[in-house]
Amino acid sequence: MKFRQYIILPALSLLAVATSCEQQEMPPAAENDGDVVEIIANIGEVDTRVAQVSDNVFSFERGDAIHVVGWYGDDKPWTDTPVKWWNDATSTYNGTRWVTDPYMRWQNGVTNHFVAWYPTTFADSGSDLTAVEFDLLTAPVRDVLWARKSQVREDGNNRLQLSFYHMMSRLDVCLKFKGQYQDVTDVVVLASMSKSATVNLVSYSEPYVFPIGKTSVTLTEKTAYASADYDYSTRDIVIPQDFSELHISFKYGNGQTADLPYKHNGDIDIFPNCHHNLILTVGTDRVTLDEVTVIPWDVREIEGGEAEE
Length: 309
Hints:
Blueprint: E1 6-7, E2 38-43, E3 52-54, E4 57-58, E5 65-72, E6 87-93, E7 98-101, E8 111-118, E9 132-135, E10 145-152, E11 159-166, E12 169-177, E13 185-193, E14 196-200, E15 208-212, E16 215-219, E17 221-222, E18 232-238, E19 241-252, E20 256-270, E21 274-282, E22 287-296
């Protein structure tokens, strides 16, 4: 099989934020706090994460924590043993602002580099961040978020704006059953995909995701916002990769069963930070593809359906 390396490409431009210096957004006072890094975090163009507050709308919640490491100049601390970061901290959202422990500080007059990820357990800052192992099926959180920012501290401005992106991909499969199938139940959609990957978090300006092998991955979570246009919709968070095979099994009528494969002509590319929607029609002896749409994960509307999270 072929392996392809996937790069997270910002589907939406990074946010240019002008925020008032309200006291409630500031971290607690610290001794000699003139160079303390003040974190502001968001995903895409709005403050979002993986907690759903309404149809395809997400928000950071109290207690959410991100891990941030930082260095300055041309140093590459991840090549050292042990790693010697200038900044290495956890920042927790308390419902109003981000509280960082320990305090991070700017190195004045040089370029400061930062890499951050959610959840904090995704990577150990003392390990090799060029080869982080990730298993989709055992991960406590599948929707892994990543941000990187490089900047020179400006006088009087200690704020670090971290714009996060989904490192993984969102895949929805929407099914239309033809008239010969009545009372369809127990639908199972299997995709032949990689369930694990190695991730380079610090390579240039985007992390690289290298999928490993392929196996049958079950997509069985029925969408909460499935459109009435489809008889069944399923979704999952998957590793960015290419794939071409699906298997669909179900029961219908008076206990009859069906098991039909779908083979795409070529590869379907699954991109990071994107929401993919596959619309299929299930016929008597074959499954046909009606439409594929790909949009940035943060966009609410998707052409051809409403399989939203």
